[in-house]
DNA sequence: ATGAAAGCGCTAACAA
DNA sequence: TTGTTAGCGCTTTCAT
């Protein structure tokens, strides 16, 4: 590949036109005669000319670059969203910077730089309510939230229908005859946690099962927190025949704790997870779970954000993405009424 | 946050100096008198002025942006490398674009655009030899390879000492008394696969164990390929008391197949993996594995690349990153000499 | 130590 | 339809 780079003027000179005509050609402006256009296009082809993106950004005042800020880049859920956003962005000629912001200070700093130095046209924020990071979003800057509904009317969002998803998970367990359903929640401040729990309550209520405080545990999305929840429940001799873990990692932790206590899954206790992470079907037993389409969430976020950038006047719309129940072998019919042997 | 953006001339006007003096201040050039400097700095502070990155790129001909091209963004291994690279880049004032390139055509297209349009100063390529993508790297463009040694003298690389890592894994099994060690390889064209297998052979050789063709299986890094390898081995009645899977996902697949065949791990067969992925300690049983420090690999890659960009004359150095054996419960002493009961 | 002028490669506004 | 002239916001070079 050549390393010398030509400019719009090189092309103009060789084609015998003004640089502005070249600009018109590369920008697909109509007012160029077919003959001139062809001449210019031939030279572009010959030189393998590509317009300098920086110069364009400079002249247009737009960078065609987005940034996606996520608590980290490695969680499968975040990584998939980013991948989806990147694909969609690229499809329409945008680029995506992604940064991990473990805390709100890092977040504030990155946003301040990215926006202040005019590096980007828009911002995708994954899990904006994980802490107070949302307070550092500059007003009127094109932004979209992912994972949680936005509490600011000006900011659109893309999220699951978490309430429905939680409801579906619990309905599935109830349908199998379970009535004492332990719920391991995610980080309690996340709106999605609250919504999933709301779904849990609605499902119980619909079946006239009165919810018990003692069956509600607070996790933090980690496998360890799932493990500890079950450990605690077991120590306290809590009765339950099913577990609804609000993500797969906590479900794994929960299954681990149950196994350590010699409790059979699903014969004695059913477990349902949430996310359908890549190895979910390889767990022991393969995990029944609620599948989210993270890639689609990312694509939708990028699409909506770019629309907002290019049509600032129109009202952008927020989206809820559908979920799907994937039944594997970690859930089963409650064994005929008798209590779990421990 | 303000949405109006000031320029270097606004600052100059308010400070009563020329815009060039402001430029000197923000670029920390020495030749500014302390008084003037202070005056300018105060105005900068007041206006919350930040230099426009695009204009700087334009004037300097450098974007301070890197791109990391990876087969995908979601594999834990890749995502961790990207996260490390992003952290290091940010630390020194660079930004990182990351793109997933599933095939060489996509790869070629992205590289062509990114480089041709002068969007980036350097390129980090994860798994360059996964297909023919490496052929599309422009000559003399600052580039670093991650995951595999480069076959081009001009391109530096960061990789594991895979041969040593493979050797360590197999030595561990041999130390536990195993002599019939099944090896599930990664994608055979990857140099890291070949090196890990070389390490496998060296360990066997050192103990005068003659390697058997029939114990070598070809996987493709997926859990399914690990599963199938064991399934095939079992069908063919292959004798083995230990498995070395060249990544954790294949190890999981292998364990799954063993479990389905009612073979106890580690009582009847030991399994060692590679990578130490996040849930490795939550598998059943918790997986013994070789841990890689992916974040460090990413950081090292970014560091080396940036050095090359800023000091094009100096020779950059390639790096091998150390690995570590993490012993959990999937490996154990071979049960006293007798053959596995099946 | 400071300022003036030119230019990075493009687009936008106007003129022809 | 085409060309000319100005910028975009900086850095760089050259004067002062």
Descriptive overview:
The structure is a homodimer of 342-residue chains. Helices cover 41% and strands 16% of the residues of chain A. In chain A, the strands form 2 sheets. A 6-stranded parallel beta sheet of chain A has the order 2-1-3-4-5-11, sandwiched between helices. In chain A, strands 7-6-8-9-10-12 form a 6-stranded mixed beta sheet, with helices on both faces. In chain A, helix 7 runs parallel beside helix 8. The first copy, chain A, contains 11 helices and 12 strands. Chain A has 3 domains: 51 residues, Orthogonal Bundle (434 Repressor (Amino-terminal Domain)); 134 residues, Response regulator (Rossmann fold, 3-Layer(aba) Sandwich); 131 residues, 3-Layer(aba) Sandwich (Rossmann fold). Chain A has 342 residues and is an alpha/beta fold. The C terminus of chain A is likely disordered. Chain A starts with 7 loop residues before the first helix and ends in a 16-residue tail after the last strand. In chain A, strand 6, helix 8 and strand 7 form a beta-alpha-beta unit. At the A-B interface, helix 4, helix 5, strand 2, helix 6 and helix 10 of A face helix 4, helix 5, strand 2, helix 6 and helix 10 of B.
């Amino acid at each position: 590949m050549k390393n010398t780079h030509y400019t719009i003027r090189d092309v103009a000179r060789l084609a015998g036109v003004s640089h502005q005509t070249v600009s018109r050609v590369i920008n697909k402006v109509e007012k160029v005669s077919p003959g001139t256009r062809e001449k210019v296009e031939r030279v572009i082809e010959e030189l393998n000319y590509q317009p300098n993106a920086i110069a364009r950004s400079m002249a247009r005042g737009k960078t065609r670059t987005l940034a996606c800020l996520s608590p980290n880049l490695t969680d499968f859920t975040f990584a998939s969203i980013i991948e989806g956003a990147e694909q969609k962005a690229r499809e329409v000629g945008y680029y995506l910077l992604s940064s991990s912001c473990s805390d709100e200070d890092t977040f504030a700093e990155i946003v301040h730089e990215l926006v202040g130095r005019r590096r980007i046209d828009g911002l995708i924020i994954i899990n904006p309510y994980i802490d107070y990071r949302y307070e550092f979003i500059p007003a009127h800057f094109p932004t979209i939230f992912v994972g949680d509904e936005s509490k600011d009317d000006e900011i659109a969002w893309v999220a699951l229908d978490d309430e429905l998803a939680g409801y579906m998970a619990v309905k599935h367990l109830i349908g199998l005859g379970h009535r004492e359903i332990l719920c391991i929640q995610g980080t309690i401040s996340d709106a999605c946690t609250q919504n999933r729990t709301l779904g849990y309550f609605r499902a119980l209520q619909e079946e006239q099962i009165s919810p018990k405080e003692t069956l509600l545990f607070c996790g933090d999305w980690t496998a360890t927190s799932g493990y500890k929840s079950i450990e605690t429940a077991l120590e306290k001799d809590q009765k339950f025949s099913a577990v609804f873990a609000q993500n797969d990692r906590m479900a794994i932790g929960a299954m681990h704790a149950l196994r350590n206590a010699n409790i059979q899954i699903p014969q004695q206790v059913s477990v349902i997870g949430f996310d359908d992470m890549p190895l979910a079907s390889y767990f022991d037993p393969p995990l029944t779970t609620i599948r989210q389409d993270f890639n689609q969430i990312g694509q939708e976020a990028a699409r909506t954000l770019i629309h907002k950038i290019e049509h600032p006047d129109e009202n952008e719309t927020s989206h809820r993405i559908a979920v799907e129940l994937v039944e594997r072998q970690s859930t089963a019919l409650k064994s005929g009424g008798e209590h779990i042997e421990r």
